[in-house]
Design a protein that fits this description.
322 residues, alpha/beta, Rossmann fold, eight-stranded mixed β-sheet, globular
Length: 322
């Protein structure tokens, strides 16, 4: 693994989880192993999940070395699965409850930096964007979907106000096969003229298409419910998100689970029954320091939210429906 990789808000995530030697923690988004390394250094046993085969392959040698060093008490276990499946996967590993769960949502720097994966337009590559490297690709979606469906994805997941114009341009340019082609189509449709400090408008469309191809927001919702079911009483959840759509889901989930959801209307009667809070101790959103942003510009948009699991029963959750 890349020992130099430092994940966003690493120290803040460590503080939020408050790990002790011997704790069992889930790194729900293994990636390049930055959080996992920090958790191991804190003395925890780590179960690391990733849906990307490349991430799991990259960590396999590290896990084998850990097993050789620790024998029957190996402290790093890799799970080549989506984090929404963590409850079943941990049960199969003989673990019923865990002390902490960390989730770093969205695409990883490792994926963005590989042009062959098709997540970014900084270098031309195939129009892929699949985290699991299986199933329909971004090219499949853009070349086959109706114009209206493409427009809806761009609007809902990229917050692209001119989504219909962009979708019309994409359909007119079909077939598309590379990230460079797609970026040029979007820029032309929006009349983009680059100037210093201007954000490339293709960023919004790439985000939207990637989220759709990977079902990322549904996976996040399912992963939060899975975490609620897997954490022990007093266990800690820490979630790092990178854009408003993700952060909104995390915020609403934790507020509802903590019983902090505001009433629908002050004119309506208050219900006599209120379910016990399943999370407590919600941490105010934490963002990267100026120093970290200088070291890692990706940290600029990161938001950390954390909370502590209570003794209240978890809501029923069906992983198969996720």
């Amino acid at each position: 693994m890349n020992a130099a990789h430092v994940p966003v808000l690493r120290d803040e995530v460590l503080a939020a989880l408050d790990l002790r030697p011997g704790d069992v923690v889930v790194d729900a988004t293994f990636g390049a192993g930055g959080y996992t390394r920090a958790f191991l250094d804190a003395g925890a046993t780590v179960h690391a999940f990733d849906r990307d085969p490349d991430a799991i392959a990259g960590g396999r040698g590290w896990a084998e070395a850990q097993a050789a060093e620790n024998g029957a008490t190996a402290r790093l276990v890799l799970h080549p699965q989506r984090f929404s499946q963590m409850v079943t996967a941990m049960a199969e590993a003989g673990v019923e409850r865990v002390d902490g769960i960390a989730m770093d949502i969205g695409v990883s720097s490792m994926q963005l930096d590989q042009a062959s994966r098709g997540f970014a337009f900084s270098a031309d590559g195939p129009l892929d964007m699949r985290m699991e490297q299986a199933g329909p690709s971004a090219a499949d979606f853009l070349n086959d979907a109706p114009e209206g469906a493409i427009a809806d994805v761009l609007y809902q997941y990229g917050e692209e106000r001119q989504s219909r114009r962009v979708a019309r341009a994409i359909v007119a340019a079909r077939p598309l096969s590379s990230t460079g082609e797609l970026a040029q189509v979007v820029r032309k449709a929006l009349g983009y003229r680059p100037f210093p400090g201007a954000k490339d408008p293709a960023t919004r469309s790439f985000q939207a298409i990637r989220i759709h191809v990977n079902g990322e927001l549904d996976e996040l919702q399912a992963g939060l419910h899975a975490a609620e079911n897997l954490l022990r009483e007093g266990g800690r959840l820490a979630v790092v998100s990178f854009h408003s759509l993700e952060d909104r889901i995390v915020k609403r989930f934790l507020r509802e689970a903590a019983g902090a959801t505001p009433a629908a209307s002050r004119h309506l009667p208050v219900s006599g029954h209120q379910a016990p809070a399943r999370f407590a101790g919600l941490v105010k959103p934490i963002r990267a320091s100026a120093a970290e942003i200088v070291r890692n510009p990706r940290a600029r948009s990161a938001t950390l939210r954390a909370a502590t699991r209570t003794a209240a029963p978890a809501r029923t959750f069906d992983e198969e429906a996720a």
